[in-house]
Design goal:
Blueprint (H helix, E strand, L loop, with lengths): L5 H10 L3 E3 L2 H9 L5 E3 L20 E5 L8 H4 L2 H10 L3 E6 L5 H10 L6 E4 L5 H5 L4 E4 L12 H8 L4 E4 L4 H8 L2 E4 L4 H13 L1 H15 L2 H17 L2
Parallel strand pairs: 1-2, 3-4, 3-6, 4-5, 6-7, 7-8
Helix pairs in contact: 4-9, 7-10
């Protein structure tokens, strides 16, 4: 539901049979507003497209970020600055960014200013995500506002399907899922210190987190499960008539 006004959501709920949300926390929030006609359905991707490949032996430990900023302000709010600072503080950390063509020159300048040109790679073109995921140990999405990214960012779902754990801001609904299924770490704040804390916890038991990521990604986010969940919802609605 992001930052949608409560009044808008309440009015919408009165016009539909069911509001579908991706996370139990969102359903709980709606329930507290008196909106009870909800269903929780996790998003789905073509998980079979993504193959597991053992990560390269660290060091370095490699993180991929697939949620690039659209504005200069989002270098801070989406955690790009925090990740660059974390890499500056931790010499065995490598970063891969999947870019969108926007502010690519600004990103190159920031990487150079931080002295990280040898440990930061920015792909500013279409890439084979499978090939990139084979090079990384985990993926990360940071945001200090729910409106900046999806509740379950697709880059993290793809990462899980490839057996690579997720680092995700605690502000995002996916953080609860990651914690419950032990397939990554929640990042408390959009800051270098919080990123480094999450990395430390992840690397202590990386093999287990990776196994859990592969299991969770293919079990909970497949297109078959997604479509079956909607079919069950529709059957329930039809049976009420």
């Amino acid at each position: 539901i992001g930052r949608a006004p409560r009044q808008t959501i309440e009015q919408t709920a009165q016009k539909v049979h069911t509001l579908v949300v991706p996370a139990p926390a969102e359903a709980d929030k709606l329930q507290s507003w008196g909106v009870g006609n909800t269903a929780v359905i996790l998003p789905g991707i073509d998980a079979a497209r993504f193959q597991y490949a053992p990560p390269p032996a660290p060091p370095p430990f490699t993180l991929m970020m697939g949620s690039a900023p659209w504005t200069r302000a989002q270098f801070r709010s989406k955690g790009v600055d925090a990740l660059l600072e974390a890499a500056r503080l931790r010499p065995d950390l490598r970063l891969i960014f999947l870019w969108r063509g926007v502010l690519a020159g600004e990103m190159a300048r920031r990487v150079a200013d931080a002295g990280l040109s040898e440990r930061v790679t920015v792909y500013n073109e279409r890439v084979d995500v499978n090939r990139i995921l084979a090079q990384v140990h985990a993926s990360v999405v940071l945001a200090d506002d729910l409106a900046l990214v999806k509740a379950y960012p697709h880059s993290l779902l793809e990462s899980l399907a490839a057996g690579k754990p997720a680092l995700v801001s605690r502000a995002l609904p996916m953080a609860d899922y990651v914690k419950k299924n032990r397939c990554g770490q929640a990042v408390v704040e959009v800051s270098a210190a919080s990123v480094l804390d999450a990395l430390e916890n992840l690397t202590k038991n990386y093999a287990r987190y990776s196994q859990n990521a592969l299991l969770a990604g293919r079990r909970d986010f497949s297109l078959n499960r997604f479509m079956a969940a909607y079919q069950n919802l529709y059957r329930g609605i039809v049976s009420e008539k």
